[in-house]
């Protein structure tokens, strides 16, 4: 059994009067892919963003309970900036900066004070290799990232996240804007990256969760209904609501 990366206890989150997360308790394990599934609006993204305190930026958002990463309370004993250095995020729509490929990847390291060209060159190459896109981009490092295909942009965004050497990568529906070939590449990449990182992924695509995740959590109306090993959850769901959702008989 791998080590616990996040320990989540009694998380309740409100947007104003709206109770968006209801008493979430779970452990997320290192070097695994954990998938969050569930119908639209059930709180998957909200919970994902609570793991790197992106909700700090949402007015009227109040969170109670405890989330520990490697045993440290991320709300009490860490600041948001250091936390997000360690817990990177990739979004649904690839969002490269309107800069060159090189400057996109070097952006984070430069913010953290790395100035030497040789060092930045090394980080850019390493990150693009890890994101399985070095061969495609090595001759266009100085070209605008906006000229890349959607799938290439998403792998570039993953490289940008990797460049600051996080421990965890949160992915919020990272393939929903991509074609099947690009989706495949991102899925293969996620499986490769879990050797070195912990990956938590929101997906609308149950086949994707079944294909690549080690554990799956099913959310419904702000509750985490069921959580367990992916093959078991799909083959033998314990809760009737999970079964209805995964067999497409929901609503
Ligand atoms: N900033 C916000 N202010 C108020 N309510 C919000 C905010 N963000 C999300 N919500 C509400 O919280 C609930 C959960 O939203 P969330 O985006 O976490 O769901 P989700 O399961 O990720 O949905 P989807 O699959 O459609 O992305 C929804 O009812 C949503 O309208």
UniProtKB/TrEMBL annotation:
Signal peptide range in chain numbering? none
MF terms per GO, please?
ATP binding
Q: Which UniProt keywords apply?
A: ATP-binding, Nucleotide-binding, Transport
InterPro entries referenced in this protein's UniProt entry, alphabetically: AAA+_ATPase, ABC_transporter-like_ATP-bd, ABC_transporter-like_CS, P-loop_NTPase, PstB-like
Name the PROSITE patterns on file: ABC_TRANSPORTER_1 (PS00211), ABC_TRANSPORTER_2 (PS50893)
Q: Where is the ABC transporter domain?
A: 6-246
Entry keyword annotation includes Transport: yes
- Extract the SMART domains matched here: AAA (SM00382)
- What's the protein here called? Phosphate ABC transporter ATP-binding protein PstB
């Amino acid at each position: 059994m791998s080590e616990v990366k996040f320990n989540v206890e009694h998380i309740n989150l409100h947007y104003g009067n709206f109770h968006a997360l209801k008493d979430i308790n779970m452990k997320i394990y290192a070097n695994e892919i954990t998938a969050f599934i569930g119908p639209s609006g059930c709180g998957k993204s909200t919970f994902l963003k609570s793991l790197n305190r992106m909700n700090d930026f949402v007015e009227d958002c109040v969170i109670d309970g405890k989330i520990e990463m490697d045993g440290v309370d991320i709300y009490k004993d860490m600041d948001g900036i250091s936390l997000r250095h360690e817990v990177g995020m990739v979004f649904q729509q690839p969002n490269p900066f309107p800069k060159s490929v090189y400057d996109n990847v070097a952006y984070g390291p430069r913010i953290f004070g790395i100035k030497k060209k040789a060092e930045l060159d090394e980080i850019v190459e390493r990150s693009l290799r890890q994101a399985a896109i070095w061969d495609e981009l090595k001759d266009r490092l100085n070209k605008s990232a906006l000229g890349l295909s959607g799938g290439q942009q998403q792998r570039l965004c993953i490289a940008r996240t990797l460049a600051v050497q996080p421990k965890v990568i949160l992915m919020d529906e990272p393939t929903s804007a991509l074609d099947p070939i690009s989706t495949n590449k991102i899925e293969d990449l996620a499986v490769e990256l879990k050797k070195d990182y912990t990956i938590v992924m929101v997906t609308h695509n149950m086949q994707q969760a079944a294909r690549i995740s080690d554990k799956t959590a099913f959310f419904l109306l702000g509750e985490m209904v069921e959580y367990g090993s992916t093959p078991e959850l799909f083959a033998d769901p314990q809760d009737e609501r999970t079964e209805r959702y995964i067999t497409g008989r929901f609503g």
